Hints:
heterodimer, A: mainly alpha, 2 domains, B: 63% helix
Amino acid sequence: MSALRRYIDHIKPHFQKGGKFEKLESTFEAFETFLFVPDQVTTQGSHIRDAMDMKRTMSLVVMSLIPALLFGMWNVGYQHYLATGEMGAGVTTLDLFWEGFKLVLPIIVVSYVTGLAIEFTFAQIRREEVNEGFLVSGMLIPLVLPVDVPLWMVAVATAFAVIIGKEVFGGTGMNILNPALLARAFLFFAYPAYMSGNQVWTHGLMEGKGIVDGFSGATPLAQAAEGNVGQMPPASDMFFGFIPGSIGATSTLAVLIGALILLYTGAGSWRIMLSTFVGGLVMGLILNAFAVNPFMEIPAWQHLVMGGFAFGAVFMATDPVSAARSRRGKYIYGFLIGLLAILIRVVNPAYPEGIMLAILLMNVFAPLIDHYVVESNINKRLKRANLQAA
Amino acid sequence: MSQDREPLFSSKNLKLLREPLDDSNPITVQVLGICSALAITVKLEPSVVMALSVVFVMGVSNVVVSLLRAKIPPRIRIIVQLTVIASLVILVDEFLAAFAYEVSKQLSVFVGLIITNCIIMGRLEAFALANKPWPSFLDGIGNAAGYGLILVIVGFVRELFGSGTIYGYQVVPEQAYTAGYENNGLFILPPMALVTVGIIIWVQRYRNRKLIEEQQS
């Protein structure tokens, strides 16, 4: 480790002002702080500079995504073996995992390479530090995509999300929308054939090779939307995640483990997570009360383990940049996400999963919510002040 | 007429023609006429037809209003302007229906909605009411051309990526589709037109630095 430190110190002058690679200063800085805790201290005043910078917060979020990622890889293999009917006694867990690993890794690599290349380029042009926001987005993007999505589409969507969703607004911390969700929404509207339907969620189904009879590949949400509630897998399967779906979003259990890591380290907001789940539950109960079709009769709690609801609530809605920031605002923001997600999911047949659109919509409204929370607080205090003055 | 006649294409007059193409473009700088720019730019052909229609309506209406400018009582000037524009738009509409029926069907209500295009009304108010016919004509043509230019660019980009064609002719080779290329469905939808206009504004401001507003601190 000290050899690495010595090497970095040795090449550092080249990247500072006047050095040979002056233009690449921010690239160098990005790698240096990635490898070592930054040694910057404040020079005036009594500010304390926390070594726990954004890079480390982002690493925590990536760590909390790992359970969902590992399970997702296993589930990709599992669904594929189910579909082809190769699931025999000789197939081990490792075989399933390896099958999924081979399919998921390229998507992750493409997402990271595209996104980071754009981030670094913009940072050099603007002579800013490279921001670490993409470390999380780059991992979130593969997890919310179907496994058979063509790699060039992943690249195009990532580029769109990073440039149009983030860089034009000024980079990490300035974006209005969650970049990972924007990438997914882009693909959803641009290439619907690869992002929806029953064929896309299991590897090999689009080519139709060796599929056993009776395997439809439909997600529980699709079955419910078609009115075949009876064919839905048991709730325990949906909770553990043994269902077709986006790579990392099927298992509510894996998502909850991630949520525990986020909450324990303080990287995610429990207010948003809680209120999102409450919002979903409330909408589920309302729909139950006015049920006119089988989909509306699904028990409200079951909605919370279906599809990507839990994943969105834990990892997407809590994005500190695009979420509401005031304490009361977070409750309102999360509650409305849950409410809208279930409403879109059940009532609009064109969108089988509502959590993506619900979060994007509330991202747009987050500043407005914050504005009114602050306003109402000012008014309350003004009233109190006037009362005392009178 | 004591003073010398101004030459037809004096630098002042040319500026009227040139400025709306870049420095004071109706869409990218003044941000007017956005709705029609989003609605009819799915393909290049309707964009071109729309651009030509607006050039005609704007050029002629500017001249007519400029000729009448001393006669129009200020209190009813808006009504007079609307009447002039509406008559011209009906002409265009009928002409398209007669000679370019397919395009006219694609454009549907948006030809009629040229009447409400804020650019036309804005130029009549801001320019034609206070200037002679010839400069007014140039101003109308210039602004309509600035509008049409953006329309054509957006239409080109959207048709290329959304349908793989340009002006109805396929340009993305068949091999690309067999290799896995897909038309981007998002470009068919209006939001992508807005993003495209945004990117044009971005590029324009990168090239033309004086358009960037002062930073407010």
